[in-house]
Amino acid sequence: MAQLNVKLSESEIEALRGYAARRRTPISWLIKDYIHYLLAGGQPVLPLADDALDSAELTSPAQWGGSLDWLATEPDIYSISDGEPV
User: Fold this and answer.
1) CA nearest neighbour of 44 among 64, 16, 29
2) Which domain does 46 fall in, by range?
3) How many structural domains are present in the chain?
4) Over 9-34, what HEC string results?
5) How far apart are the C-alpha atoms of 33 and 62, rounded to whole Å?
């Protein structure tokens, strides 16, 4: 297995740690999922000028990165009739 070393500034590392903590996932998994997303043909996610990402940009890595593929094998235990109407 190959390794890739990337130099990041302290502020970049801290921002990445904070993002990973909010997502409750290791930094390496975030990077691996993003690489899978890009290799599957996904467009690079670039921050907007005001650093606010729209919902399509936020959901694309999850949709194409493979991190939610395990849900395909999960049983459907809830139906539309479960719970209370909103």
Assistant:
1) 64
2) 10-67
3) 1
4) CHHHHHHHHHHHHHHCCCHHHHHHHH
5) 8
CA dist 56 and 86 (Å) reads 25
The answer for residues whose C-beta is within 8 angstroms of residue 48's C-beta and 6 or more apart is 54
Helix axes 10-23 and 27-39, enclosed angle (nearest 10): 90
Neighbouring C-alpha atoms within 13 Å toward the C-beta of 5: 1
Among 14-18, 66-70, 82-86, whose mean pLDDT is lowest? 82-86
Residue 56 domain-assigned (yes or no): yes
Mean pLDDT on 51-69: 78
Q: List, for residues 28-41, the tens digit of each pLDDT value.
A: 999 999 999 999 99
Query: Considering the domain boundaries, does residue 79 fall inside one?
Result: no
